[in-house]
Amino acid sequence: MPNVFLISDHHFGHASIIDFESRPFTNVDEMTETMIEKWNSVVRKEDKVYHLGDFSFLNKDKTASIVSKLNGYKILIMGNHDRGRTRRWWLEAGFDEVSEHPIVYGGFFFLSHEPMYMNKHMPYVNIHGHIHGQKYEGNQYINVCVEHWDYTPISFEAIKALVVPNEEQ
Predict the structure, then answer these.
(1) Computed over its alpha carbons, how large is the radius of gyration of the chain?
(2) What is the pLDDT of residue 122?
(3) What does DSSP say about strands 97-99 and 103-105: parallel, antiparallel, or unpaired?
(4) What is the distance between the alpha carbons of residues 53 and 82, in angstroms, rounded to a whole number?
(5) Can you tell me the distance from the alpha carbon of 1 to that of 127, in angstroms, rounded to the nearest whole number?
(6) Of the ranges 56-60, 83-87, 92-96, 118-122, which one carries the lowest mean pLDDT score?
(7) How far apart are CA 48 and CA 27, in angstroms?
(8) Which superkingdom, per the lineage (predicted)?
(9) What secondary structure letter does DSSP report for 149?
(10) Higher-confidence position of 160 and 153
(11) 3-46, pLDDT tens digit by residue?
């Protein structure tokens, strides 16, 4: 049975992100190779991955080369750095689906690039990226930026376990 994973903000090809976010890489090539290895260490070919934006700063050919090396059926929810390119560009780069807007998943989870406004009375959870090493308080926000998950996609089952205690699942 396929698993579902989430991740965001790889920033492939963005050398400055290494310093901005204190990433443990000496250069973009090491960062790229390590992040591809970590993705493929958990994601199988039959799995589905929601990438919540800011995937690559590279040209289409280099981006397509990276996408082709990543396991799974890949869905991109465009982030602020992705929106300078069209949905078609990202599809041609190898994503299986591309959304310019947040997606409601499982009737309960909002998948978005930027965190969405959620008050404490809303029964929803926002799974998001964008804020890198920062984290919002409370269990209504799950930040899936690579910095929080050792550059490895996190399974939807692991996210559900963070939100809903075992006895309630």
Answers:
(1) 15
(2) 82
(3) unpaired
(4) 7
(5) 23
(6) 118-122
(7) 29
(8) Bacteria
(9) T
(10) 153
(11) 999 999 999 999 999 999 999 999 999 999 999 999 999 999 99
Q: Given this model, what pLDDT does residue 1 score?
A: 87
* Domains defined along the chain, listed by start: 4-168 (3.60.21.10)
- Strand order from edge to edge, sheet including 4-7: 97-99, 73-77, 48-51, 4-7, 154-155
Question: Residue 135, Cβ neighbours under 10 Å: how many?
Answer: 13
C-alpha to C-alpha distance for 3 and 44, rounded to whole angstroms? 8
Question: What integer is the mean pLDDT of 51-65?
Answer: 98
Q: Which amino acid is at 100?
A: E
Helix then strand then coil, in percent of the chain rounded to 5, is 30, 20, 50
Contacts of residue 130, defined as CB under 8 A and 6 or more positions apart, other chains included, come to 8, 9, 52, 53, 54, 79, 80, 113, 114, 115, 145
d(CA 2, CA 7): 17
Give the angle subtended at the CA of 120 by the CAs of 107 and 148, to the nearest 5°.
75
Query: Which tokens is 51 given?
Result: 């990438």
Question: How many CA atoms does the CB half-sphere of 7 hold within 13 Å?
Answer: 26
The structure tokens 């280099």 sit at 62
